[in-house]
Amino acid sequence: MKTLERTLAIIKPDAVRKHAIGNIIEQLERNGFHILAMKILEISKHQAGQFYAVHAHRPFYNSLTDFMSSGPIVVLALERENAVADLRKLMGTTNPADAAEGTIRKRWATNIEQNAIHGSDADESARFELSYFFAGYELTG
Ligand code: CMP
After folding, report:
1. Cα first-last separation, the chain
2. What is the pLDDT of residues 22-74, one digit of tens each?
3. Could you count the other beta carbons within 10 Å of the beta carbon of residue 82?
4. Rounded (to 5) percent helix, strand, coil in the chain
5. Residue 122 alpha carbon to ligand 1 centre in Å
6. 52, exposed or middle or buried, with CB in 10 Å at 0-12, 13-18, 19+?
7. Less crowded by CB within 10 Å, the N or C end of the chain?
8. All structural domains of the chain with their residue ranges
């Protein structure tokens, strides 16, 4: 039997500024992702830093947290079979210069940092990231 997985997606400030929210959500739904919960919000640099704590030692951490707190984002709790890996396929590579045709980053990303969308990279990070933005009662599906 196939099991459903959950993952977190974030439509980043660059894509929100490009009015790409509707297009990206349409692409997620067309690819079979069920939206369990969704909200638009702004986060502080401190909150962005907590979310991206695994990257705290990276040279791009300061700039990344500035960017992620630079305007509204849309956070989505998604459910599907193989959701974690298949969302990352649909997103395309981190650097949009290498992204395949048809991927979200190929169409919408600005550069390697301002790359339109985030998706959890593993089951364990999905659990942390979903619980960062959503309370249990919001994810009853
Ligand atoms: P994301 O998938 O959200 O995970 C970490 C983020 O850090 C990544 O997307 C980019 O926004 C950013 N990032 C990763 N690598 C680089 C890099 N080399 N330079 C700048 N930003 C990066």
Report:
1. 20
2. 999 999 999 999 999 999 999 999 999 999 999 999 999 999 999 999 999 99
3. 14
4. 45, 20, 35
5. 16
6. middle
7. N
8. 4-135
Q: Which of 11, 50, 113, 128 to mutate to test the pocket of ligand 1 (most atoms within 8 A of CB)?
A: 113
Ligand 1 pocket test: pick from 60, 89, 105 the residue with the most ligand atoms within 8 Å of its Cβ.
Answer: 60
**Are the beta carbons of 31 and 86 closer than 8 angstroms?**
yes
**Residue 54: CB atoms within 10 Å:** 11
Per CATH, the homologous superfamily of domain 4-135 is Nucleoside diphosphate kinase-like domain (3.30.70.141)
Please count the CA atoms within 13 angstroms of the CA of 69 that sit on its side-chain side: 16
Task: Return the DSSP state at 103.
Answer: S
